[in-house]
Specification:
Chain A has 313 residues and is mostly helical. Chain A is built from 14 helices and no strands. The N and C termini of chain B lie far apart (68 Å). The chains are: A mainly alpha (313), B alpha+beta (524). Chains A and B meet through helix 2, helix 5, helix 7, helix 8 and helix 10 of A and helix 1, helix 5 and helix 12 of B.
């Protein structure tokens, strides 16, 4: 197991390097330069050139890349071209916001999705058809539309919850929780459908296996059969789906964050891309890739823990 | 298999979810608005804006008039706008022009105190204005060498007197020294402008509470202790929340989360139907701007009849209804509330494609012509909507997306038209010299009619004669539109939603889109 983990960590590092190199190259071939962005429309071509030269923009790409990697390893993600502020602390402030709604959204969608999927698989018949149809509808509904609807009902009409904004946990835990309810429920509604479908399919397959009949025959309680034996057997694809949901939510949170005015990674990415803040874009790509890599690593370790066949192989 | 158990399990989860929702909704405090009958809460005024007010940090000279409301409590300015939109001194106690109007002498209020305790001085004003060559400081671009409002030198006369020197007569120059261009940064910030990225250095009664501020999400301005001007601001603190999405801003206003919110025009009916206070102010006109007035890229661009044809070919009513519902179509460069508004221009440039073709033929282009136009994400929809109008009269506009930021910046040199670009006319000479003869005149075109009209406006501003001002502004308006240096499209109203229980109806300085921060009064 240790060797497996070490091997996966090594591959994760390689993945990070490849992704960051691709981001680096894309930034350099984008056509924009730091000087042009930082100095703006009123700068002369000479001023732009001088600025770019001063930061090493015209050095060989590999040289620039390794210099950047060296800085990153020291915890320095550079400074924003737009306001000159260090990028690292800015991202550090935003990470908890995105992590909060991505994590809780994933958890809630996992609970709801698994319950719905198990119900559909176990009960069958009308319940199965209803849940399948419902999940089909929820899969096709855009998250933005769901969010707007929830805001209209709970914030605008009923005034039960805030329409926008984020309150840090340290400032006010209750307000923090309130500020997350609508974004999390929005995520859960639109993400649970996919998990429900995967759960239903996996459970349906597992429940028809021979050992399920044996368990029933020896008098194992039904609840235990479903939630311990069958669900465990069906868990690998379900966990993979949940992990992918989390990655998608974490990396693609811009819609939710714009609608609810949450100061997270998604909002920062939108602003950075819109203003061509090249170092910021590069740093955000690195952070998003790191999350993907870490989640994948965790997923593989978990799979190995749950599946004896993988442990033995 | 027991369906009962499975259903019970699902039911339990659902019950937990509903209970959690209800509990979280009932817990904690909400935003404070006053109950009916009680005095309005003045602890904090929450203002939602459509952009990050401090995207570039806290150097006010990096911004334009759109960020004036945010910075005017933090920084004092040489001159400011009063409630009527007139230019009045703030850090200046007295000002005087030389006889030939090439020098402006300012006597300064040296009691103004900055963050580090130092007071305003002539040396500090010189230090501030001597940064006018810094390309980062866009607010100074017109004052820099070669700028239309070039300040050739700033001379310290004595410790509380400076003289600004110009290469040409500059009557009414004080209107260029209103916020934010006229804001004075303290000695720490003036010596190291980079220090303003993270903290302001102003003499105003407000400052940024860094602990409570989250960049890009929420900026809290609080009163400085013992500041003599603190009482000018009725609320104890002001929170600026950039909420970029217009629907999210409306939701925040209607739900009472914010007390004052800048809206998009098309969301006004939603706010009105929700019973939230609504007030609008005009003043910003969106235009297509001519970059090549000299004909450098093609002789047609030096011909006013061509621009008149392009203007007459646009069905502004349909364009606005389709792309900018709620805004006001206009063929005037100046807004409807301006004394320079000319109603006859609306008839003269009313939609008439046949007349447009005649104008093109008269200009020598009966078969039309084609040209390139680089669009950005912001301008794409507008230009795609205009494209068919011009195609109908034989003018083909080839739209292409900007491949980089730099390409977008260089279109002033490489393409004949640009925009849409908004102009505010509170200070009429600002758009004329800063844009028309400034950044948008790379090819150095001359226009004696506009220049003469602008000169008359400047002289009339100095004289205080309202009738003379109106006439001069009308002449300026007509000169700009008839020459085609601007093709106006619509007037953009600035609608604001406000909590009537907390805030009195906001008022605006003249035709400004943003109220004066100090003018926002609690509801009585």
């Amino acid at each position: 197991m240790l060797f497996f983990v070490l091997k996966r960590v090594a591959w994760a590092i390689v993945t990070l390097l490849i992704a960051s190199w691709i981001a680096f190259v894309l930034v350099h071939v984008s056509g924009s330069t730091p000087g042009g962005v930082a100095l703006g429309q009123s700068a002369t071509a000479e001023q732009v050139f001088a600025y770019n030269e001063s930061i090493g923009w015209y050095e060989p790409w590999l040289q620039q890349y390794f210099a950047w990697v060296g800085q990153v390893l020291q915890g320095n993600l550079g400074v924003s071209l737009i306001d000159g502020r260090p990028i690292g602390p800015d991202i550090a402030k935003r990470l908890p916001v995105t992590a909060a709604h991505a994590l809780f959204g994933t958890l809630l969608s996992a609970v709801v999705g698994i319950v719905l999927g198990v119900t559909a698989a176990v009960r069958g018949g009308a319940a199965d058809r209803f849940i399948t149809a419902l999940s089909g509808v929820l899969l096709s509904v855009p998250a933005f539309w769901v969010g707007v609807l929830l805001v209209f009902v709970f914030a605008v009409q009923l005034r039960l919850l805030p329409a926008t904004g984020f309150v840090p946990f340290a400032a006010d835990p209750a307000a923090w929780a309130k500020s997350l309810v609508l974004p999390v429920v929005t995520i859960a509604i639109t993400s649970a459908a996919g998990i429900a479908r995967q759960t239903r399919a996996s459970m349906s397959e597992t429940l028809t296996q021979e050992h399920m009949r044996t368990l029933r025959a020896i008098g194992t309680p039904t609840t235990r059969i479903i939630y311990v034996h069958a669900l465990r057997g069906a868990s690998l694809p379900i966990i993979a789906t949940i992990a992918i949901q989390f990655i998608v939510l974490f990396s693609g949170s811009v819609i939710i964050e714009v609608l609810f005015a949450l100061p997270g990674i998604g909002q920062a990415m939108q602003a950075a891309v819109g203003s061509a803040d090249l170092p910021f874009v590069q740093a955000l790509v690195l952070v998003a890739t790191l999350v993907v890599v870490l989640v994948n690593l965790g997923l593989e370790v978990l799979n190995r823990t749950l599946d004896p066949k993988l442990r033995a192989s | 298999m027991s369906r009962f158990i499975t259903a019970r399990g699902a039911g339990a989860v659902a019950a937990v979810a509903v209970t959690a929702l209800a509990l979280s909704a009932c817990s904690g405090g909400g935003s404070s608005t006053s109950e009916s009958g009680a005095a309005a809460d003045t602890a904090k005024l929450i203002i939602a804006t459509d952009s990050d007010q401090a995207a570039f940090g806290y150097d006010p000279i990096r911004y334009g008039s759109g960020q004036r409301m945010f910075f005017e409590g933090i920084y004092d300015s040489l001159f400011v706008l009063d409630q009527e939109g007139k230019v009045v001194p703030q850090l200046v106690t007295n000002f005087e022009y030389s006889e030939d109007q090439t020098q402006l002498t300012l006597d300064l209020d040296t009691s103004a105190t900055f963050t580090d305790g130092t007071t305003l001085s002539a040396d500090l004003v010189k230090q501030n204005l001597d940064s006018r060559g810094d390309p980062d400081l866009s607010g100074y671009s017109a004052f820099a060498t070669g700028g239309q409002n070039e300040i050739t030198d700033v001379v310290v006369v004595d410790e509380d007197t400076v003289t600004l020197q110009f290469a040409a007569p500059k009557p009414g120059f004080e209107s260029n020294l209103v916020s934010p261009a006229g804001m004075i940064v303290g000695p720490t910030g003036a010596a190291d402008r980079g220090s303003l990225d993270s903290a302001p250095d102003g003499s105003g009664p407000l400052t940024v509470d860094a602990d409570a501020t989250v960049k890009g999400n929420s900026y809290l301005l609080v009163k400085k202790e013992d500041d003599p001007d603190a009482d000018d601001y009725p609320f104890d603190s002001y929170e600026f929340k950039p909420i970029l999405d217009s629907q999210a801003r409306v939701n925040a206003a209607i739900s009472g989360e914010v007390d004052l919110a800048l809206l998009a025009a098309e969301t006004q009916p939603q706010v009105e139907s929700a019973g939230v206070g609504l007030v609008t102010n005009g003043g910003t006109v969106q235009n297509i701007i001519a970059f090549d007035k000299a004909g450098a890229l093609g002789p047609q661009w030096a011909e006013p009849l061509v621009y008149q044809a392009l203007s007459t070919a646009i069905d502004r009513e349909a364009f606005v209804a389709a792309i900018h519902p709620g805004e006001v179509p206009t063929a005037n460069a100046l807004p409807a509330d301006s004394p320079g508004y000319v109603p006859e221009l609306e008839e003269q440039y009313a939609y008439d494609p046949d007349a447009a073709k005649d104008l093109l033929a008269e200009a020598g282009y009966p078969d039309g012509f084609s040209f390139d136009f680089t669009i950005s994400q912001g301008s794409q929809r507008d230009m795609e909507a205009l494209q068919p109008y011009w195609e109908a009269i034989g003018v083909t506009m080839n739209l292409k997306n900007a491949a980089s930021t730099e390409e977008l910046f260089t279109v002033v040199q490489t393409e004949p038209l640009g925009g849409p670009i908004p102009f505010q006319w509170t200070n009429p000479l600002g758009p004329v010299y800063g844009a028309l003869f400034g950044f948008a005149n790379f090819h150095k075109a001359e226009n004696p009619e506009i220049q003469a009209a602008a000169g008359a406006v400047g002289a009339s501003l100095g004289s205080g004669d309202a009738d003379a001002q109106a006439t001069a502004l009308q002449d300026l308006n007509s000169a700009i539109v008839d020459s085609g240096w601007l093709i106006p499209l619509f007037e953009q109203l600035a609608p604001w939603a406000y909590d009537e229980a907390k805030l009195a109806e906001p008022t605006f300085p003249g035709a400004e889109a943003f109220p004066l921060l100090a003018s926002l009064q609690p509801a009585s």
